[in-house]
Amino acid sequence: MKNRLATKVAAAVFLFTGVATAAELAVTESFSIWLVLSVAAVAAAAAHVATHHLVVRRLELARDTLRQIRRHQFDNLSEANLGRGDELNDLIRQVYRTGQVLESEFEELNSMENYRREFIGNVSHELKTPIFAIRGFAETLMNGALDDTKVSRAFVEKIVRNSDRLANLAKDLSEISKLATGEQRIAAEPFDLRRLSADVVESLESIAAAKSITLTRQVPGTTAPVMGDAPRIRQVLVNLVDNAIKYTNDGGHITVSATPGDGGGVLIFVEDDGIGIAPEDLPRLTERFFRVDKSRSRTAGGTGLGLSIVKHILAAHNEVLRVESRVGQGSRFGFHLPTATAAEMGAA
Ligand code: ADP
Known about the structure:
The protein has about 350 residues and is α+β, with helices and mostly antiparallel strands. The chain has helices spanning about 5-30, 35-70, 85-140, 150-180, 195-210, 230-245, 295-300, 305-315, 340-345, and strands spanning about 190, 215-220, 225-230, 255-260, 265-270, 320-325, 330-335.
């Protein structure tokens, strides 16, 4: 069974040699039939050995490799040291490479599946917390607290705060899924960073003022127009300033600034003198749903998605988020944007 190919080749050689010799015999009638058959048998045996050596062993190797691939035993796959210039060796190499490609695709699918499972778990947890809180407050009101004006007002305020959390979560989730799937395209155009930063500071000033935080802006009038998707960069700045407000204690200071970058372009920073971040937490900041202090983030209306959205927007601009921080002293988040060229300004 094992050497079927070699046996077939040997039989063919045997038959061919026999027919050829019989024909010759018919012409010469000088050889013994037994001698002819012996020569044919030796030739067939030699052909069997040669075929087995040259073909069958390599076919077995290809079959074993395919079997391992079928059983997902990628760890056992090892590339045989086969010479070039032979179709069978090329075929075996292709089988081996197919195994390698499948292995990496399986790994990617597995990690996506794990990621999806974790993401859904996180989302459902994030949804449950405010929903249960709203239900709890509403039930307490229904069971009699409605009659106490002071208590009922406090509870209704909590219901509103938790509904805001749900609304923030829905907004951030839709934003992040659009960014991750590439549905949200980046349209880079020249824009005035000074105007955009003034707009952001103005929109968040009242929230900072409620915590007696001083929010200042240092963007020189000489700052050249930059290239980027203005509404998305606005969102980056809003998220960074909003975080700075959330994680800075009352009476703190926040500065939004812009300076020329070393290699050209503009560096934009949002700096605070807030609670700061420990070095071991810095690498995880842009992970979805990662928070250093969960309860502080939730109380402040955080979703744990703000910096992840920032990372995605900057990545779509081919830029990265830079973070420097010291616990108890404050944090500085920054990113780079290229300045618009004369041609880009003309096209705009
Ligand atoms: P959140 O909605 O919780 O603020 P983010 O993704 O915006 O989520 O930020 C992730 C975490 O990073 C926050 O929960 C907080 O622990 C930390 N963080 C972000 N910005 C600052 C900051 N300016 N100062 C201190 N910690 C910060």
